[in-house]
Automatic annotation (TrEMBL):
UniProt keywords, alphabetically: Ribonucleoprotein, Ribosomal protein, RNA-binding, rRNA-binding
Primary role: Binds to the 23S rRNA.
Presence of the UniProt keyword Ligase in the record: no
Pfam families given in the database record: Ribosomal_L27A (PF00828)
SUPFAM superfamilies: Ribosomal proteins L15p and L18e
Family: Belongs to the universal ribosomal protein uL15 family.
Name assigned to this protein: Large ribosomal subunit protein uL15
GO biological process terms held by the UniProt record: translation
Organism, scientific name: Hyphomonas chukchiensis
Domain of life: Bacteria
């Protein structure tokens, strides 16, 4: 079998309707557009038009705001960190953002990793992250570990 031997199944394709080609064609004269009016004319797009009434997209309130300089941090909870250390994916003595990505605990760094306090803290862990909640820092220090917060990364373009 060759490509030039292939053809679509019987009845699978249908010729397009050519409109405005005489009254006998069944789609002649007005070509299925009815008589007169805005939608009978060519070059008309009436999306969102409601006949002079205020359109719904203008009646509804617009909410939300995203600052252009906002940061998107990857985040990790204490329970996820403890689980990864238990499974042997991470070494508790030296946990950094790069080791978290390499172990598959965090998918994408973005602007850094932020440590959150959900779950139980792993024992004797040393972790370096961009940010951490106060509760997460307290929980890790209570469990005999240390947290180093490096703060937001500086843009190289600003220097």
């Amino acid at each position: 079998m060759k490509l030039n031997d292939l053809s679509p199944a019987e009845g699978a394709t249908k010729n397009r309707m050519r409109v405005g080609r005489g009254v006998g064609s069944g789609k002649g004269k007005t070509a299925g557009r009815g008589v007169k009016g805005q939608k009978a004319r060519s070059g008309v797009a009436v999306n969102g038009f409601e006949g002079g009434q205020m359109p719904i997209y203008m009646r509804l309130p617009k909410r939300g705001f995203t600052a252009r300089n906002s940061k998107s941090h990857a985040w990790i909870n204490l329970s996820r960190l403890a689980k990864a250390i238990e499974e042997g994916k991470l070494d508790a003595k030296n946990v950094t953002e790069e080791t978290l990505v390499a172990a598959g605990v965090v998918n994408k760094l973005g602007d850094g990793v932020r440590l959150l306090a959900k779950g139980d803290a792993p024992k004797n862990v040393t972790i370096t992250v961009t940010g951490a909640s106060k509760a997460a820092i307290e929980a890790i220090e209570k469990a005999g570990g240390t947290v180093t917060v490096t703060g937001p990364k500086k843009d190289t373009a600003e220097v």
